[in-house]
Every structure is written in structure tokens, then in C-alpha cells.
Amino acid sequence: MDITSLRSRIEYLIHMDSEVLIQDILNSGFSCVRCGWCCRENFDIRITHDILRPSNAISIFPDDIRRIIKGTGMQWDEISQPDIYSCLSDGDSIWVTGWILRRNDAGDCLFYRDSACTIYRWRPMICRCYPFFMGDKSVDIMHCEGLGSKITKESAAELGRILKQYEIMKLQSYTHIIEQIGDKLKFANLRMLPRDYSGEVLVCDGEAILLRRFNKN
Q: Checking DSSP bridges between strand 94-97 and strand 199-204, what pairing results, if any?
């Protein structure tokens, strides 16, 4: 989407009543069983011929990181890392579009331990919405072990409200990142950084452009 289309979609969502999402959520019968399926690396998503994104490379907003900092006392770079699967290179610099939650050596979310999310109270917006995402005209539902259970209308309404809020925040973030990156945002410039990458990147997260350095272990 271009900025004009993104802004049009944002305006539509702002005026959309989140109650229209309730029935799809109710029909799913969703109830989080804290199984950790969405926290673990289960499959890859092919972005381009050369870019495979793990299913649990979780994109997060700066607000998500600040909430986790407040709840845990951890530092920004202990919680998140530049999104190595969403990079652009113009030949001179490497631009990274946002942050992802850190993962451990096994590929699981860093905060998934002993079969539980250790930051559940402060978890990112995308985790609060899972397994639901906004489609063009309805709710898209991802794989989840908690589907087919029971859910109250009140819980479905709350999920609908959060899902609408998340979608607006996501599109607003996209808009700001496009403004930050400008003409570097070209398909030919898409890159994925190797795990052993060493060097500096510029992270555009919709709020600021921040310099980060990767060092080989």
C-alpha cells in the first residue's frame, strides 16, 4: 500500500465499530490455553525468494517495548532487536524497518520459559490479538490450539476492540516508516541480514531513526 491508501484504511478503521468483529471471534470459540505454539518457531514465511521469516519473528511497537521495560526493569536491547528479516540496503547503509522480540538459541521467544509466557501481563499488542488479524472485510484466524473452546461475548468484544486498535497502530506505524525511509523503499532493496552479520544498521520504527551495531559472537 502507498501512504494515501494506508491513510484511507486508517480513517475507515477509526470510524468502524469494533462490534462488527465480535461474531467472527465468537464463532472461533477461542480461549488462550497458553500452549506456546505462537511463541515457538514452527514454520517459515517466504517473503521473497531469498527471505524466509520465522513464524515467531514477532514485530513489536516502541510502545510494546516500553511497556515490557516498565513491567520487567529490563533494557530496550535486552527485550528487542532490529528486525533482521525486514531490511533495505541502498548500497551505502542498511535500513531496518522496526523491532522484533528477541528469541533464544532454540528459536523460541526469549520470554517463553517453562511452558509459559513470562511477560503475559505486558505482552505486545500482536500477542494480545493472536490468533486474530484484520482481513479486508472480515477477521482472519491463524492456527491456534485454543480454537474451538468457549468464549463469552464480553471477551470477544474486548478482543475486537484490541484488534481494531492494533490494526490502526500497525498502519500508522507503516505510514511513519515509509515517511522515514522515503525512496529507499523499493522491492529490489529488500534484504535479510545473516545471523552472523557484523556492522551498523539504522532502525526506522515510526518514531525515530536509531543506530544499532551487530557484533559477531
A: parallel
Per-residue pLDDT for 136 more than 90?
no
| pTM more than 0.85 | yes
CA distance 70 to 152: 31
Distance (Å, whole) CA 131 – CA 117: 16
What is the distance between the alpha carbons of residues 72 and 60, in angstroms, rounded to a whole number? 16
**37-63 per-position pLDDT tens digit:** 999 999 999 999 899 999 999 999 999
Kindly write down the DSSP assignment for every residue of 11-74, as one continuous string: HHHHHS-GGGGHHHHHHHT-------GGGS---EEESSSS-EEETT--EE-HHHHHHHHHHH--
pLDDT band with cut points at 50, 70 and 90 for residue 150: confident
Those residues whose C-beta lies under 8 Å from the C-beta of residue 121, and which sit 6 or more positions away, are 71
How many alpha carbons lie under 13 Å from residue 214 in its C-beta half-sphere?
19
From the list 105, 102, 62, the residue with the least C-alpha distance to 83 is 102
What confidence tier does 187 reach under pLDDT thresholds 50, 70, 90?
Answer: confident
Q: For the beta carbon of residue 159, count every other beta carbon within 10 angstroms.
A: 23
Q: What is the Cα–Cα distance from 87 to 95, expressed in whole angstroms?
A: 6
Run of H or E including 116: strand 116-117
